[in-house]
Amino acid sequence: MTLRNPGKGPPAVQKLSNLAPKGKLSNSASRLRAADAPKPSPPLRVDTSDRLAHLVKDASKSLSRALQMRLAEYSIAYGHWTFLRILWRKDGLSQTELSQLAGVMTPSTFSAVRSMEQLGYVVRRQKRSNRKKIYIHLTPAGRALEHDLVPLAIEVNNIATAGLTKREIADFRNALINIIEKLNGRTDSSSGQ
């Protein structure tokens, strides 16, 4: 595999093109630099005596890293994943709604949406009745990404939960949901739970 191929883009893109299965790279491959591609990190040493918050943080980082590495094969920025996931569920959200659902500030959403628009994944539109709000809609290319990218997330989840029973996975999900709801003030803390 040669990385020097005149007229075929930067060496990093050629490398990714050679490694990725045919048809996986979008037109944005030329925008991906070697520095942008995630590097495998050394295995994390788990301190089993650590507090729950640290274990959850470490698990989240490991899950994110595993997905990020897979998304890079498709030249998809990890930061776009959250927004695409939300739009696959509900297309045509306002930029403010998208920010709220993603849990990020509006300027971050603006930057990500602008980038995804340049890549051809979304378009921004205004309604005639409300010219102030901008609504984000998936393009056919953005919609088509769901077919390739969702299986990557499923794969990461399957790897992470390998060896656990369905009951253990359900209990773990319920515990995480309970923690999230309590810390977001959605559950009455005086209920004794």
Could you characterize the architecture of this molecule?
Residues 1-35 and 189-193 have low confidence and may be disordered. The chain has helices spanning 11-19, 52-72, 78-89, 95-102, 106-118, 140-161, 166-183; strands at 93-94, 122-127, 130-138. It is globular, with a radius of gyration of 20 Å. 13% of the residues are buried. It is built from 7 helices and 3 strands. The longest helix is centred in the C-terminal third of the chain and has 22 residues, at 140-161. It has one domain (38-185): Winged helix-like DNA-binding domain superfamily/Winged helix DNA-binding domain (Arc Repressor Mutant, subunit A, Orthogonal Bundle). A 3-stranded antiparallel sheet has the order 1-3-2. Helix 2 (52-72) crosses helix 6 (140-161) and helix 4 (95-102) crosses helix 5. With 193 residues, it is mainly alpha-helical. 53% of the residues lie in helices and 9% in strands.
The neighbouring-strand order within the major sheet is 1-3-2
What is the gyration radius calculated from CA atoms?
20 Å
> Which band does the percent of strand residues land in?
5-15%
Query: What pattern of helices and strands is seen along the backbone?
Result: HHHEHHEEHH
Indicate the low-confidence ranges by residue numbers: 1-35, 189-193
Q: What is the CATH-assigned architecture?
A: Orthogonal Bundle
Distance between the termini: 59 Å
- Contiguous helical run count: 7
Main β-sheet description: 3 strands, antiparallel
Globular, elongated, flat, extended or rod-shaped: what is the shape?
A: globular
Q: Give the fraction of residues assigned to helices.
A: 40-55%
What is the CATH class? Answer: Mainly Alpha
Q: What's the CATH topology name?
A: Arc Repressor Mutant, subunit A
Number of strands: 3
Number of domains: 1
Q: State mean pLDDT (0 to 100 scale).
A: 79
The CATH homologous superfamily is termed Winged helix-like DNA-binding domain superfamily/Winged helix DNA-binding domain
The SS-based structural class is mainly alpha
